[in-house]
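Q: I have 459 residues here and want to know how they pack in 3D. Can you give me a structure?
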Amino acid sequence: MAKQSSVRQLAARAITRVTLGESLSTVLPQLQEKLSIKDQPLLAELSYGTLRYYHRLDAWLKFLTEKPLKEKEQDIHNLILVGLYQLFFTRIPPHAAIGETVQATRTLGKAWARGLVNGILRNAQRRFEELNDLEARSPVCGWSHPKWLINAIKRAWPDDYQAILTGNNQPPPMTLRVNEQKITPSRYLKKLLDDCIPAKQSQIAPQAITLGKPGSVDKLPLFYEGAVSVQDESAQLAASLIRAKPGDHILDACCAPGGKTCHLLELHPDITVDALDADRVRLERVGENLQRLGLTANILCGDATDPDSWFPGKPYDHILLDAPCSATGVIRRHPDIKLLRKPEDIDALAQLQQNILRAIWPLLKPGGTLLYATCSIMPRENHLQIEHFLSETPDARLLTIEGQWGHNTGFGKQLFPGSGSLPRNGGSGTSNAMAGRSMGRFMNSGDGFFYSLMVKTDS
């Protein structure tokens, strides 16, 4: 009993720390250390799930209470959200969800709230139909996104926003990148199926295999021998879009944690790669990934907007710029983005992207190419960014990206976060028929990404 209560208490604490501005990827490992190994997955499930549906659960709680809890009781507020998530989005038996959540008030040191938490959760069970009705009346509740983000996505992609918002609320798949230096994707897929691990090959990324359900890498055949890595299929497109040939010198700017650097070297073992990032701690991950796969790159720590501080002096044949962005294409993997990102962040990030583009373009050889990538779905960071860059850069010319994937924006290709189902509810202004019409652009199961390829001319 005490262990389970501790899980709910820590989940509430994780939600509270995210609402105060910390990322879940920072908070969760710290809190998981306080639990036994067997309880750590449940903490992750409750934390990710509650954040995924935070705005809906918060709207429900407001409906169920006569007045909001005081600011100093945010931990109880978030504990109730964790309880609501368990009741309506998990297979945890209702009596256990309520009992363990009520018990967690003691481990939070607020036993006075036992009756309050118990009463609200039981009231929610009784009034579930009324809670469902709220989803149809409020877009924030129905889509479980902040209002500004719903409006921004709707303005940017009026024909697709419903499928995008639906995709954002889906748990992401686990996709592997097969190292063709070790084994072919078809042979690795057979190994998985022989081991009774359901999986399928990607329709858009040649080395990608998506598992039927996420699992531990410890159970993957040949993982520690470097045969596979975990990487989303949309992200895997980057390395295949770089048209490298033997002897080429490539810059992977903003490279951490190094998935694209490793993929480039797996596909082209006879190239050299400078792997640049400003975050020294994250660069350690790059080194670890390279070591596991038996690959070598020149790791550089530096600010991409200030090449004078790190540029070795030899111009590049190709540059991959996976630019810092709003990460609005990977919300399903990082649902805390819904709480952490603010409207003003988009312009600030677009300015940073512009500064990096201007700084690294001179490092490219004439005839060389620059692949611009983001995991964003915001036009300001993507095709509008490239349109502006081309207008102010006479020696930059857009190249066509081939492939039957993504939406052609005229200045690059936009992938939306994959979605396997239609909206489960109406939501305000929602039409399942409209959502259905846009599903054809969502046939991939990968994340939301943008790619644009430019060549440097002699002029």
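Q: Anything worth noting?
A: The radius of gyration is 23 Å. Residues 1-5, 419-440 have pLDDT under 50 and may be disordered.
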